[in-house]
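In practice, a research group might receive sequence data for several interacting partners and want a quick structural hypothesis before committing to experiments. The following worked case mirrors that situation: the sequences arrive first, and a predicted assembly follows.
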Amino acid sequence: MTDMIPTIAALRERLSVLDRVRPPKGRTALSLGLPCLDAALPGGGLVWGGCHEFLPAPADAGCHGFVASLLAGLPPGPILWCRHRDKGDPLGLADMPYGPGLAALGLDAGRLILVRPDTVDDSLWTLEEALRCSGLTAVVGDGVMPGPVPGRRLQLAAEDGGALGILILPPLGRPPPSTALTRWHVVSRGDPPAHEDGGRPRWLVSLLRARGGGSGGGSGPWEVAWDDTAFCLRLAQPLADGPVAAAE
Amino acid sequence: MDGLATADGLRPGMLLADARALCPGLTAGPADLAADRMALARLAVWSQRYTPQAATDGTDGLILDITGCAHLQGGEQGLLTDLGDRLGRAGLTHRLAVADTPAAAWGWARHRSAAAGPVLPTGTPAWVSLLSLPLAALRLDEGLRNDLIRVGLRSVGDLQRQPRAPLVARYGTGPLRRLDRMLGVAADPLAPAMAAPSWHVCRPFAEPIATRDAIEAALLLLLRDLSARLEAAGRGARRLLLTCFRTDATTQEISIGTARPGRDPQGLLKLFRERIDNIDPGFGIEMMELAATGTDIFTAEQAGLAMGGGDAVAVMGLLDRLVNRLGEDQVGRPVPRDTHRPERMMELAGEMEGQGVPLPLPQAGAGQKQAQPQYPSAGEGVGNDPDTSTLLNPKPKPWPKPQASRPAPARPRTWLVEGSRPLLLLHPPEPVRMGEGLSWRGRQLAIDWLEGPERIRPDWWQARTGPTRDYYRAQLADGRRLWLFRTVDDRGAWYLQGLCA
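A structural hypothesis for the assembly, expressed as tokens:
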């Protein structure tokens, strides 16, 4: 009986790779930029070949900012950004992410292929075709909430293509469950103004769900800030403690 | 100028009033030089029945290189007779001549005496005839010709007898070069006009077809025919137009475009599949015609090399599918523009215009993270090569379209700007009310802090300038950051233009 245990462990290992919970041997998952975020996931980061969902707050670009900072850390290669505009949403006036804003987060807009379909059906078709394409590094679906069947199709397409699928959901209060590998909630947080050494992008990130369960690293929320000089994320200290802790 | 007009005393270059005085019944019309040129080019193509080397010459001449071709028409004389007969039947006034060199034939056709025959002997025996021609037979500029006549050189022979060095010193190399070309001492190459290859294939059906499967099958056959011809010419299709001729004498058209020249029938069929539903077969389609309306040189690429060739092909294929389903304006690559106006700083470059920025594909040894944003280089796309068929196309060439965008500036353009910029730019800007807090779309939002102003002036090099704007970054109490501006003209009117990360 005892010699069965390593076998079962090896089988579990293989299953978790097939489930895209862990990256296959020899490949690493995409780091979220901070050890505490990576530690929350069993794969040690976002696993390639799957969809990861990011839930924003209404009329808030913080989630887009966090995703852009993630994409900036990707290996070189084209990124397809498909944005579906909801005419009722105030953000519907913005039909694409803005290049200078992306550059401030370390992402070169020259890498992007922007697609602006008119309908949800076209958006889902675009995402599926793009995820199936082997030449893209990442595919971002912005503003669509795939239903159960399209969501499953996107997940299968991503497994075929091997790219990183990122879905920025519409700002729903309680989005339905999906087959995506992880779901995150990102909202903007206040930062002191620039003359008080602030004014940087700062987000509150929490992990809502992860396939394969969490890894014991907790689900947040973590308050992270974008360091615009080193072009990386860092864990934000609560304002009162920061200078005091440094002084001690 | 035909024989009848010459008999009445009309000459080219005459004033209309003089011509009317000589010939009161004259009808005058404006000259259509472009159409004349087209007609001449078509005539050059037609004259390829005698020789493959046929070229237009000036505005009113054709030059045929009949070396090795004359015996097919019964010798030079036989060829001239046949050509003259056919031109005469077509109502074209003509003067024909056969000589050793194009320049000699030009002069002999236009300036020989009425009694001389059209065919000149080969080699130096022809010189006697050529040297007796007037100086105009050398086809010199009018000013130069008049200068030479003024010093007493009236015939080609007069010129040939002069010492060469003083002639060149006084009149340049022009007269002697023309003389050498006429006498066969210097080379005088031809640029033969070629018939434009036509990328049309069509297929009539015994019975009208109406089902999607049948249309697809017929389309695949057409694509195979066309791609075989494109392959033989080393070209690939950039735009394809499928025309379906219905039994009720109407036509249905669908077209596709590709980001790079393609000729793989299955791949092209895949692009057509998205559009086949747009065809209404009606009572049936009795003929289908496929035309490549745009072609490009097809460069074969080996897939799977270190440069990521296979990936590039996969991405190009994806872009083709996206553009053909969603439309050209829905897919694009961001390009920075040199402007002060934030809303104009980012432009989308289409994939189909052949001016797309090169895709940043992974290089060999990729894998390291990039920490800094990369500066895009000034993207110089691959241009379409000019279509050689326009010369022979009977349809007049359309006016060149104005360029959609300004030419790329020489220095590298960058996305990085001083000051903070939003991540999502609202266009047009939303009017908001600024009072105690901020009122946007009927909601009162409390402002934590306001940072600014950053003054952005309009583009001074543009004729139509808007007002100068003062931009502010505001943080709301809930942590959201907004990008607001007001104009210096009306400081009370605030606008929301973007959301920062």
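Before designing any experiment, note the following. Residues 302-309, 361-397, 402-412 of chain B have pLDDT under 50 and may be disordered. Residues 467 and 490 of chain B are 9 Å apart (CA to CA).
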